[in-house]
Amino acid sequence: MADPTWQDTIAYNGLELRNADSMFVQADGTALGSRPGVRPGDPGLTTSLAGSTINVSAGVALLTRAAQGVYRVALPASSSPGTVNAAHATLPRVDLVYLRCWDTDVDASGFRKGEAVYLAGTAAASPVAPTPAGTQIYIPLATISVPASGGGSPTVSLAVRPVTVAPGGILPDSSATAGLYAGHWRDNPTTGALERWSGAAWVAWSSAIRGIAPAGTATGSYTGQYRDNTTTGVPDRWDGSVWVTQEQPTACAINNSASLASSASNYFAIAYSSLAMSNRSGMWAGGQPTRLVLPLAGTYLVDGFIVWTGSLGALDGRAELRVNGSGTASTTARFSVARGSSGNAASVASGRIIATAANQYVEVFANQNTGSTITSLIVSFGVTRVSASTS
C-alpha cells in the first residue's frame, strides 16, 4: 500500500519521499525511474582548475539510482575535492570529477551527505575516464585530461555533465536515444532544430507543421516538404526519394567549331561539344549532342547565336528551332538570318518554347548554300524555364 504525501498522521521514510519526488523530473523510460543531471543553463557545479587544485562551484543537481528514487543534492558553497595527481612519465590520463550522494542505507558507507569527489584515471596510450566502483550514487561533473609529464597543463571538459528538466520540458540533446513518448520534444544543439518524437523518429519542428526544413536536413519527412538551400538560395522539394532543387532549370551548350554541310534546302541539326552551364543534370549529354532537354513541363525562354565566321561570302545563313524531333520549325522562337560579309555575320535566337511534358527537347537546325561544308561555326544556345504554363 502506498502512502500519499503530505497527509497528517502518516510517517514517511526516505525511499517513499524520493519516489514521490520522481513525479517532478523527466522520466527515463522505466517505472519510478528519472533522468539525473543539472538544470539547463545553470552555472552551478562547474569544475575548474587553479594550478593543480580542483574547484567545484556551488550548485544543485538531481541524482538517481534504480529502485531508490531521486536525490536532490545541493552544494551550498564552492569546494575542492582535491588536487590533480602527478602526470605519468610517458602516458596521458583522464580523471573524473563527480557529485556523490552518500546514503548508508544503499551504499553501506556509514554517511548521509553530498559532496564532489575526484577520481584519478589510469594512464594509457588511449586513456578513458574511470567509473566509480560499487553502489555509489553519483553524476559525472567533468573530466580532466592530464598529458604525460612535460606535455602541458591538464584541461577540464564539462561535456560529461548530464542535463535534466521537469516533465514535458524541452531537453537539450542531440543523441540517437529514442524519445519517451509520441509528442516528446527536445532541442537539438547539433542541428539547431526543435524536434518532436513521432513515435518512431525525431522530426524537426518545421517538418511537423509542414514548414521549411532547415538546410542540411538529410531526408524529407513527407513528399512535398521543402528544405532551405543556403547554396542556391532557392528551396529544395522532397519528391519522396531525393531533394530536388526548385531553382528553374537552365542550360547553355556551345561548340566553337561546328560543321554544317551545304544544301539548297535541307536543314541539319547542330551538335554541341560541351555545356557552358547547367543547374540540372541531364539537360545535355554527349550521346545526343544536338539536344537540350527541357526537364520540366512549362514555358522556356531561348537565347543563343551562330557566328558564321565569314564563310558565307554574299550568301545567307539560316537557322530554326525544332521541338521533339519535329520536322517543322517552331513558330514561337526563331533565329534571325545572317548574310555573309567581310566580318563574322551572326544569327541570333529569341522567343519561347513550350514543353507540354517533362524531358522534351529542343534542337537547332541550320542551312547554308555555299557549295562546301563549313567547319568553323561558333554556336551557343540556351534555355531557361520562366513559367509552368504549357499553353
Low-confidence stretches: none
Mean pLDDT: 92
Largest sheet: 6 strands, antiparallel
Measured by DSSP, the beta-strand proportion falls in 35-45%
Rg value: 37 Å
Distance between the termini: 78 Å
With strands numbered from the N-terminus, the spatial order across the biggest sheet is 20-18-28-22-26-24
Number of helices, where a helix is a run of at least 4 consecutive DSSP H or I residues = 3
Estimate percent helicity. under 10%
Structural class: mainly beta
Folded structure, characterized:
β3 (59-64) and β4 form a beta hairpin. The model has no long low-confidence stretch (mean pLDDT 92). It is elongated and about 110 Å long. It has helices at 14-21, 104-107, 205-208; strands at residues 47-50, 53-56, 59-64, 70-75, 79-83, 93-103, 112-119, 137-146, 155-157, 171-172, 185-188, 193-197, 202-204, 212-213, 226-227, 236-238, 243-245, 250-260, 268-269, 274-278, 291-294, 298-307, 316-323, 333-335, 338-339, 346-355, 360-368, 374-387. A six-stranded antiparallel beta sheet has the order 20-18-28-22-26-24, with no helix packed on it. Strands 19, 21, 23, 25 and 27 form a five-stranded antiparallel beta sheet that branches. A four-stranded antiparallel beta sheet has the order 7-6-8-9. The protein is built from three helices and 28 strands. It has 391 residues and is mainly β.
